[in-house]
Amino acid sequence: MEIKKEIKILFWIIVVFLVAYFLPLESDRFNTAIYATLDLTKWYAQEHVVLCLLPAFFIAGVIAVFISQASVIKYFGANAKKWLAYSVASVSGTILAVCSCTILPLFSSIHKRGAGLGPAVAFLYSGPAINILAIILTARILGFEMGVARIIGAVVFSIVIGLIMSIIYRKEEKIKAAEQLNIPEVPEKRPIWQTSFHFFVLVLILVFANWGAPGDDVTSGTWHWIWSNKWLITSFFSVLLVFSLIYILKIIWWWVIIGAIITAASGILTGTPMIPMIVAIAALSIITLLDKKEPENKEWTLSTWDFTKQIMPLLALGVIAAGFLLGSTHDDVAIPGIIPGEWISMMVGGNSLFSNFFASIVGAFMYFATLTEIPILQGLMASGMGKGPALALLLAGPSLSLPNLLVIRGVMGTQKTLVYTGLVVVMATISGLIYGGI
């Protein structure tokens, strides 16, 4: 019998017993926090997993399987031209328009394929930070000045944080650079335009399926038109995906057509976008797994499943923890967590070093659903939040959250995750101080 093992088991039995024994069920705040946890978890499952994460996993699978390691190394590797690597990484969010959780499988994929730490981190930060929809909404609701400050801060942040990370871990990067020099450049199986076409069709499906609603006062214009017709636009790119599966991936055409018909029929019969998306993902998984002609197609789905297994459990734990501690904030819902919301409002007034630092910390750990950080900030600013802390939270919040920190730790390790989080918090605090003093 191993004494240490038995003591560890006894310890956890005692911990679970004490937690159960002292559960404060009579506390309204505790019960509200439990409800907020369940509400956020339910909303996340209903609105975020199917339309956001699952398509993102398939996009990550494309990077892992169809885009050669040599291509990733060429543009993002340790030996890549710095100006090119950081330029591409720092503006990627304007194309991808994803949130802090959706960027994770894409970051994990390019990191595994050999991307340098600096460009990979710049990509990780910029993806959700300069979401073009969020920038437009920020300028419209919080003011043009805040919108400009957000996009400048986000682009500069991504580059500076990436460069600092690469300097701190320069020894590892030198080893990686030396190893990459010896990697033979394997010729692409298909023309690069075909792989790019397949990749961007999936990205555009992700973007338009999650196109956010404009403000209540917006009843016309390009944004409103796109939002009103987003499922027609998504359907158009779905047709292009059918073409890509048949012509580029060489999947048996009648398999793809049957899957497309079943998907379309499910949408017509149910009148909801969720069901056809689930059907489409199931059909895509089945036809690629059954494909005997092109092994890469099966590998694509298996790679997607690997990302799902790695990321989903950690995200679920993070969402539960964020809901319990900080509450549920989505749509028009605002349910407080165990930490009183009024404490946060009280501590982010003015433009002191502490208020900016506290806003950065809250942003780094709180989970914001896509675009919800803006109405939340609008309410906080109306309650006395300074414009400096508001920018600090905008720069730290969308790119970090407790759920995605758990996943980043699984990809980069504990030390690098702590350094990355610290850099974001420090730079967000400094930016808030400068902006608040202008």
- Give the overall form: globular
Query: Which band does the percent of strand residues land in?
Result: under 5%
Number of helices: 22
* Spatial ordering of strands, largest sheet: 1-2
Descriptive keywords:
single chain; 438 residues; mainly alpha; two-stranded antiparallel sheet; 22 helices; 76% helix; 1% strand; globular
How does this model look, in words?
This protein is an all-alpha fold. The protein has one domain (40-211, 219-251, 291-437). It contains 22 helices and 2 strands. It has helices spanning 3-21, 28-65, 69-76, 82-90, 92-96, 103-112, 117-129, 132-141, 144-168, 170-181, 192-209, 222-228, 230-247, 253-270, 274-290, 295-326, 341-347, 353-365, 373-382, 387-396, 402-412, 414-437; strands at 328-330, 333-335. Strands 1-2 form a two-stranded antiparallel sheet. Strand 1 (328-330) and strand 2 form a beta hairpin. Helix 2 runs antiparallel to helix 11 (192-209), helix 9 packs antiparallel against helix 22 (414-437) and helix 20 runs antiparallel to helix 22 (414-437). It is globular.
